[in-house]
Amino acid sequence: MNQTIKNEIAKKILQAKNVAIVSHLRPDGDSIYTSLALTEMLELLGKKVQVVSHDPLPFPLCDFPETKRIRIGDVEPKGVDLVILLECADVSRSGQTKINHLPKINIDHHYSNSPYAELNWIDPAASAVGEMVFELAEPLGISLTPRMAEYLYAAIFSDTGSFQFSNTTGKALYTCYRLVEAGADPYKVAEKLTANNTPAKIRLLARVLNSLRINEKGDIAILSMFKKDLQETGLKEVEVEDVTTIARSIKGVRMVIFFKEMDQDVFRVSLRSRGTANSALVAEYFGGGGHKHAAGFTVNGPYERLIEEIPRKIEQLLSTTINNYSYT
Ligand SMILES: [Mn+2]
């Protein structure tokens, strides 16, 4: 099944001349680095490629030189004969408004993807979309350059939380082995992505950690970050995933709820969990989606109300049977 769809995707790519590559709003390491690797793969095949992100790239993810290639904004649809969407559950997730009429390929490793493209390759068992794109090299008939390998490695490194999350499968590690053989430098990637913090970022983490609340039972940790935290530490777009990793390391905590103020009374809520606590199902209850141990959704309302209501509801959801459900 996977082999067939991979071959069909490769065929479609080989027939295209002018390709746009997009990923999702608030891009993460997997979406950014996989976009770059795929861009170089297609350019090696002589395609004209534009790689576009609706939202800016946060630091330190943007600290690789080729990330400058990613245009922030809209796809320029003129002449484009194929759009490849990486980990977008639907077209709106890309934030792109000018691609509706264009032929599409949808590649995703999130199970809550609704197949909307001409070709849809959804593999929830894949650790990262980078792991999937690695598998396209062979049907496309190309050998990866060290730089492509390094970007795909960085994608997997990023999405597995530096090989700590539950998606760190044997296949993910085997793919990384092959990527290192092809020239990826694990030390360089680790330094860039995990040891590249600015003092301002550490001050921001301190502020966010200071907001920590734990429910009475001790199994839910709640963190909050407001726009003023960013403003007062002089930061704009920043990757703050580390803070949920710290909260998730608290003994007994099964789920971390991280409220991020996006606008007045608009909060993006990230969920991180472990064991049987299922973030994806909780996120879906609130209209979002994601993986078993990492998911998210958006809520509207005054913070004082949300900080009471959302954790209480999640506590209820965690005690019901939905969280013993497993789909991997
Ligand atoms: Mn991903």
Description:
The protein has 328 residues and is α/β, with parallel strands linked by helices. It has 2 domains: 2-194, Alpha-Beta Complex (inorganic pyrophosphatase (n-terminal core)), CATH 3.90.1640.10; 199-324, Roll (Diaminopimelate Epimerase, Chain A, domain 1). It is 38% helix and 19% strand. It has helices at 2-15, 29-44, 129-134, 137-140, 146-159, 170-181, 186-194, 199-210, 227-233, 241-248, 279-285, 303-318, and strands at 18-22, 48-53, 71-72, 82-86, 104-108, 119-122, 213-214, 220-225, 255-263, 266-273, 289-290, 294-300. The strands form 2 sheets. It has a 6-stranded parallel sheet. α2 packs antiparallel against α5 (146-159) and α5 (146-159) crosses α7. The model has no long low-confidence stretch (mean pLDDT 94). The chain binds manganese (II) ion.
Under the CATH scheme, which architecture of the largest domain would be assigned? Alpha-Beta Complex
| Total individual domains | 2
Return the average pLDDT rounded to an integer: 94
Q: CATH class of the largest domain, anyone? A: Alpha Beta
Task: Please give the radius of gyration in angstroms.
Answer: 20 Å
Largest sheet: 6 strands, parallel
Question: What does the oligomeric state look like here?
Answer: single chain
Number of strands: 12
Low-confidence stretches: none
Question: What portion of the residues fall into strands of 2 or more residues?
Answer: 15-25%
Give the cofactors and ligands: manganese (II) ion
CATH topology of the largest domain: inorganic pyrophosphatase (n-terminal core)
Roughly how many Å apart are the termini? 17 Å
Encode the helix/strand succession as letters: HEHEEEEEHHHHHHEEHHEEHEEH
